[in-house]
Amino acid sequence: MAKILVVEDDPAVANSVKEWLEHERHLVELVGNGLEAMDLLFTFDYELIVLDWNLPKLSGLDVCKQYRSRRGKVPVLMLTGKGAISEKEEAFDCGADDYLTKPFHPRELLARVKALLRRPSEIRRNVLEVGSVTLDPTSRSVTVGNREVNLAPREFALLEFLMRHPNEVFSDDALVNRVWGSFSEVSPDNVVRKTVKRVREKLSVDGDTTIIKTVYGVGYQLVAPEKGSG
User: What is the pLDDT of residues 113-137, one digit of tens each?
Assistant: First the structure.
């Protein structure tokens, strides 16, 4: 299983790619414009980026350029309707690792994804710690003290996001957009409430489930203990 960012503004194409990748048991984050993609790329760790060329706000080519200029190492698979040799050269010059021309067959996409994921990983090890909770994005493991905690993919993604933004408050809509994706059709209040409840229960120590605090009427906040506190 790999964590993959798909950046595609056509909902039909985006949802198809997401479905194919999830069928292969990958965890897929989905966004529809270049600026949001850049925000996520420097907030989370991914193992592969599937990137459309023509995007609103910031083109896929510019996303790739900026990502590489800031030492981003994750493989980039460019998706585009552009098929000229000069355009392919431009994509590779900007840092793309592979290039797939639309329309494409799902089997070819998955074959290219597998090939890129077989390359040696250069993702930095970035272990997150808040209080007694430790989260390792590389091994996708969570521990509370010495106890290992098994989280479902969306539970893990929610906890990772909150641990990267300790003490900040996020609304249901903001969490759905950042954890479930821009094209998600889930009901924000219902799915967030249920996911937070499950994460709290799994992280609880002696019945204490308060690491994720409900800020009534606003949203949720991961509370980081002050340094030096017990």
Answer: 999 988 765 444 568 888 889 998 7
* Rounded CA separation 20/27 (Å): 11
Q: How many residues does the chain have?
A: 230
Q: Write out the DSSP string of 94-146.
A: TT-SEEEESS--HHHHHHHHHHHHTSPP-PPP--EEETTEEEETTTTEEEETT
- Contact by Cβ (8 Å): 39, 48: no
What pLDDT, in 10s, does the model give residues 193-215?
899 999 998 988 766 656 899 99
**Domain formed by 3-117, architecture:** 3-Layer(aba) Sandwich (3.40)
What SS3 state is found at 37? helix
Report if pTM > 0.85.
no
Q: How far is CA 21 from the centre of its chain?
A: 14
Tell me the fold of 128-222.
Answer: Arc Repressor Mutant, subunit A (1.10.10)
CB atoms under 10 Å from CB of 108, counted, come to 11
